[in-house]
Design goal:
Blueprint: H1 7-18, E1 35-38, E2 41-45, H2 58-71, H3 79-82, H4 86-99, E3 103-107, H5 110-121, E4 127-131, H6 136-145, E5 148-152, H7 157-166, E6 173-178, H8 190-200, E7 203-207, H9 222-225, E8 234-238, E9 248-252, H10 254-263, H11 265-268, H12 275-290, H13 293-312, E10 323-329, H14 331-343, E11 346-347, E12 349-351, E13 361-366, H15 373-389
The protein binds pyridoxal-5'-phosphate.
Pyridoxal-5'-phosphate binds near residues 111 and 240.
Length: about 400
């Protein structure tokens, strides 16, 4: 009999199901907006990273359609081989201006931006100081670099100082932190980390995926929020969250960005995003530079929703951003809660171990400028009903 070569995969899958860790993915049958069709049902959407409601914005769709007519649907090869389209260069100039940095380079995703920049700067014999709760793409970028990874306690500058003192053998050194942490919505103490980086002459990098379009003047991000312009060497950004499209970028000092055009492997060995994506992103920068209205509405919705949830008796954790965790304790409670919210017409994400620590399972509510006051009130009503039914409030 032939050997069953994939038996081990089936066993792993069964094990995930037994532990309740098997991810089942909902199917969306409409555009990403305040209301979406999920598995055939119209529900209020509190799941997406569509902070500013740009994912289905008419001006961005127009820009994408025009770009298809002018440039076609694909970039046809990697940029260093087939040449780069004017659109991609325009986006990079616009991003650099928006972020107030010397230069920027776009990638296919934020994940790829991390896989490009960290190994391009660090290698064996170097040390990377990394917040213990950094995003998976940072962790993978660090691993690919083969530098030593020295983790410091979450958002703890004292711990960072201690870890730096302990690491006496090094070539180059880099400090990396998420800007906004996506599970709790808390913000890195980037001002303090910048002081430490300056004191020790260590490169500083932040991944601002959840800060872009959210923090700082008109959504310029965490560096602007702390007024640290010129003191953070590398900023990674995503175009797939507040920008509403897809893609990522690295922004910062000219030398570093130039180096990535020579040595960033996802840039050199993988095609760029399509003309339509890029044109939509440029339109997003236009919208953000023209008006702060969407960012203000996002924060207004955030303040209103959090205050009302607290008033209802829910524990919304330590969040400082539109990411709103609703703390529920054990994972089965959170999953049941999410199911009942969905039955009531509200689409939210339940998170349990290992995504978050044991006993800290939650519903993660993502607020957006796309939500009207009426949408928020309906969501609050559904939360109240389910909370009372389940004895949470
Ligand atoms: C979402 C996220 C990414 C990945 O961004 P994509 O553009 O979706 O690949 C990277 N880093 C952080 C911190 C994120 O939250």
């Amino acid at each position: 009999m032939a050997t069953d070569k994939t038996a081990f995969v089936r066993e792993e899958l069964d094990s995930l199901r037994e532990q309740g860790l098997y991810i089942s993915i909902r199917t969306i049958g409409s555009a990403q907006e305040a209301w979406v069709t999920v598995d055939g049902k119209r529900v209020l959407n509190f799941c997406a990273n569509n902070y500013l409601g740009l994912a289905n914005h008419p001006r961005m769709k127009e820009a994408a359609k025009r770009a298809i007519d002018e440039y076609g649907v694909g970039p046809a090869a990697v940029r260093s081989i087939a040449g780069t389209m004017t659109l991609h260069l325009e986006l990079e100039e616009r991003l650099a201006h928006f972020k107030q940095v010397e230069d920027a380079l776009s990638f296919q995703s934020g994940f790829n931006a991390n896989l490009a920049v960290i190994p391009a700067l660090m290698s064996q014999g170097d040390v990377i100081f990394s917040d213990e709760l950094n995003h998976a793409s940072i962790i993978d970028g660090c691993r690919l670099s083969r530098a030593k990874i020295a983790r410091f306690e979450h958002r703890n500058p004292d711990s960072l100082r201690q870890v730096i003192e302990q690491e006496t053998e090094y070539g180059r050194r880099l400090i990396i932190t998420d800007g906004v942490f996506s599970m709790d919505g808390d913000i890195a103490p980037l001002d303090k980390l910048a002081d430490i980086a300056d004191d020790h002459g260590i490169l500083l990098m932040t991944d601002d995926a959840h800060g872009e379009g959210v923090l700082g003047r008109g959504g310029r991000g965490i560096v602007d929020h702390f007024d640290l312009h010129g003191r953070v060497d590398i900023e990674v950004g995503t175009l797939s969250k507040a920008f509403g499209v897809v893609g990522g970028y690295v922004a910062g000092k000219k030398d570093i960005v130039q180096w990535l055009r020579q040595r960033g492997r996802p840039f050199l060995f993988s095609s760029a995003v399509t003309p339509a994506d890029v044109a939509a992103c440029i339109a997003a920068v236009d919208l953000l530079e023209e008006s702060t209205e969407l960012v203000e509405r996002l924060w207004e919705n955030t303040r209103y929703f959090k205050a009302e949830m607290k008033g209802l008796g829910f524990d919304t954790g330590e969040s400082e951003t539109p990411i709103t965790p609703v703390m529920l304790g054990e994972a089965p409670v959170a999953f049941e809660f999410s199911k009942q919210l969905f039955d009531g017409g509200l689409f939210t994400m339940a998170l349990g171990f290992p995504t978050v620590p044991r006993g800290k399972a939650r519903i993660r509510v993502m607020l957006s400028a796309a939500h009207s006051r009426d949408d928020l009130d309906q969501a609050l009503g559904i939360f109240k009903d389910v909370g009372q039914q389940m004895g949470v409030v």
